[in-house]
Amino acid sequence: MDWDYAPAPESAAIGRLRARYQMFVGGQFVDGRGADVATINPATESPLATVSWAGVDDVDIAVKAARTAYSRVWSKMSGAERGKYLFRIARGIAERARELAVVETLDNGKPIRESRDVDVPTASAHFFYHAGWADKLQHAGFGPSPRPLGVVGQVIPWNFPLLMASWKIAPALAAGNTVVIKPAETTPLSMLVLAEIIADAGLPPGVVNILTGAGDIGSALVNHPGIDKVAFTGSTAVGKAIQTSLAGTGRKITLELGGKAANIVFDDAPIDQAVEGIVNGVFFNQGHVCCAGSRLLVQESIADEVIGKLRDRVSTLRLGDPMDKNTDVGAINSAAQLKRIRELTAAGDSEGAQRWTSPCPLPDRGYFFPPTVFTDVSQSMRIAREEIFGPVLSVLTFRTPDEAIAKANNTPYGLSAGVWTEKGSRILGMASALRAGVVWANTFNRFDPSAAFGGYKESGFGREGGPAGLAAYLDTDDEGER
């Protein structure tokens, strides 16, 4: 008997999408000076809504609104009072969780199951966590009198729009700063729903400002002279440009950039558990994850067994309508990103790697790419060196722990890594040797608001989450007076 999953679609009506959205500045939804631009559902290639984009002049208006709110209200408010607003926002996200999950999936293309079970709950958790810190900053190890920096400019990517916004807004507000933030041009909708929640929470006007638009708006924001701190998550190329332009300005910067994480499986690892971790590490969110375990390093003696079981498991992944609760792999976020994935996988073919593709059928329309595994990969190949940002895994082998460390560290990136073994001493030894900001042991892609996240080398610098993430938004005693 052939067992299959019946369709279980979530209703798009739950998202309560409007025909047109405006940016959020000075506590009000207002039209920008840019054009009205349609945001596209990547699963259908159909327009979802139009969004009024900001113009460069709007950046100045938003920064001035944030400065006024900082000087007159937010920086003078007690930590306990600030915390109350963060608690309200956290509850608002939780109360509108189903709506936010639908909006995120429609606008981004990720499976509704991931939006519902990961993105939205974790976004709410970040506000809850940082709300608790707001009145305890002087007891957090930052000296007796930590101070906010002022106005923070933040730019977030399209892979986790709501979650990345929460990662950045919550600690900034808890520390006493005001915010001007720009979402990615392809995924602005969940941020604009968050703006409604912020307004409903009664946050003073200008404390959070949301500018829509493309890269020119982001560039104008991070280079605006009224910005005291910049936080950026996105590509390494743009991160380098930001660091270059802000060098010598004295502004604090946090950069969370690309990655090419190694997921290392030793011969004593629980193989079935490791296979699940490999799948979660690279195919979660269609591989649109900066810390995706896109390089699998497997010990040579078990390579055939692991690859065989991996192919069997990947063959069961369901690719299709992101709004279906049974879908495992949703749509690629944009036509441009799909083109990039195809270009790099074609390079893998031409350089001699062996491609295996899941037999799953592809929908007739939309931006989809099947889960793909490359074997016979060498370290010089583009698929082993460059961030693909898609559902593509490159498999390399090793014989000794030293060889695994050398191969794992042979990358310009240093954001994350995974280690699979039953030996605790080996886990600790590998974790200390790997040049990665986060090392998971016998798991992958696990996050918590209390745990710091960030990278080394071309994966950026600074940390987000936990006390270390709060410190990035504070002027502490050991840094001297501003």
Based on the model shown, name its key terms.
482 residues; globular; Aldehyde Dehydrogenase, Chain A, domain 1; seven-stranded mixed sheet; alpha/beta; 22 strands; 38% helix; 18% strand; six-stranded mixed sheet; Aldehyde Dehydrogenase, Chain A, domain 2; 15 helices
Overview of this structure, please?
The chain folds into 2 domains: 12-257 and 459-479, Aldehyde Dehydrogenase, Chain A, domain 1, CATH 3.40.605.10; 262-448, Aldehyde Dehydrogenase, Chain A, domain 2 (3-Layer(aba) Sandwich). It is 38% helix and 18% strand. It has helices at residues 56-72, 79-95, 97-108, 112-133, 161-174, 189-200, 215-222, 236-246, 271-283, 303-315, 335-350, 382-385, 401-409, 424-433, 466-471, and strands at residues 20-21, 23-25, 28-30, 36-41, 46-52, 147-148, 151-155, 178-182, 208-210, 229-233, 252-256, 262-265, 295-299, 354-357, 372-375, 392-398, 413-414, 416-420, 438-441, 456-457, 460-461, 474-475. The strands form 6 sheets. A 7-stranded mixed sheet has the order 14-15-16-13-12-18-19, with helices on both faces. A 6-stranded mixed sheet has the order 9-8-7-10-11-21, with helices on both faces. The longest helix is centred in the N-terminal third of the chain and has 22 residues, at 112-133. The radius of gyration is 22 Å and the shape is globular.
